[in-house]
Amino acid sequence: MSGKKIQFSGFSSAAIHGGHTKDPNSAHLTPVYASSTYMFDDAEQGMRRFSGEEKGYVYSRWGNPTINEAEEKIATLESFGIAGDDRNPLVLKAILHSSGMAALSTLMIGTLKAGDKILTHYSLYGGTQELVEKVLPPLGIEAIIVDLRNLDKAAEAIKADANIKMMYLETPANPTIQCVDLGELTRLAKTNNLIVAVDNTFATPYLQQPFLYGVDFVFHSTTKFLNGHGTAIGGALLGSDLALMNGHITKVHRLLGGNSNSFDAFLLTQGMKTLEVRMERHCHNAMEVAAFLEEHAAIAKVNYLGLSSHPDFNTAAKQMRHPGAMLSFEMKEGLEAAKQFINKLQMCIRAVSLGTCDTLLCHPATMTHHGVPKEKREQYGITDGLIRMSVGIENVQDIILDLEQALSN
Ligand SMILES: Cc1ncc(COP(=O)(O)O)c(C=O)c1O
Fold first, then answer.
1. Taking the model in full, what pTM does it have?
2. What CATH number corresponds to the domain at position 84?
3. Residue 373: predicted pLDDT
């Protein structure tokens, strides 16, 4: 085969073939390279590998062919169809980690120092919130939490504190499915020389591409929709400043030691190949489920970005291809009704996490937010009767049938 390398015109072609390097033994799929270290022919080669003069693997905490394939694929998807400043296709560097939280730790420690502050929204994944409220402050890094859906408030907060160095966005966010405006906030952040980092876990690059707006970093819990089958924990950190990513951020990643492993990376690579078809079905099912729940007498409120009743409907429509697969809803009768409903489910799964083929439901008040005082969680919209749902790709009539029987008395 010869000729110019073709550019994939479709997302699934890129998801299936992107990032793949032919295996030296012609295995169809890049195998699970279960090897912690790599051999050198002689001392000189070892020296060239360490100095970076010669490309090649050294030690699997630093890199591994199976991990590398997953990283290249994520980078291909987050940059798909985006032109860089020089009008050539945008090139990103992705670093795979052992978990989303490990990727987030590399991001924070790799970009901030004592005295710096992070500006963020009040609706965040619980682990992220604890990291910024409990782990970073003793290191001298504090968070300022405001409603970033209000651009004036965001601008006021930046003006009031010259130590703000990073704007950290999670959109859509856990568990009330709020959205912030990526374009407007990035513009504001960039006029104030802030770093912009975005958690794109709920949307995935198929639904939303933050690099289109000029953000610096995108972060994923790959545990969720990217893997798609609930088979491995993982996280990815992506950046557009290649010198920074290949230099300082790679160094921080290697030294903090939150590396992925080849088996989890293999599972992730296979999962990402079907991202487009899964997301299409997830989103189609979620819309039908939301419409069903909105009409149900036992339910007070449905938070789904595809419903015009959601306050962030317009923001989501502007920056997302479809409104996603995550929704939450509030039972009219509160805590007991929510527990009863959750206990009666037959096909849908009672579990935390999200983004798997099967539908997952959790009750934040008794599960993820059990340790958060009631007044505090209610401030964030997490009431006793709130249920969070990750709508799966089963046949939608079966999902609705299960919800219907669990909601009946
Ligand atoms: C939006 C979001 N970001 C980050 C994380 C953390 O990822 P992980 O559990 O892979 O460390 C999660 C986990 O649920 C999440 O939902």
1. 0.96
2. 3.40.640.10
3. 82
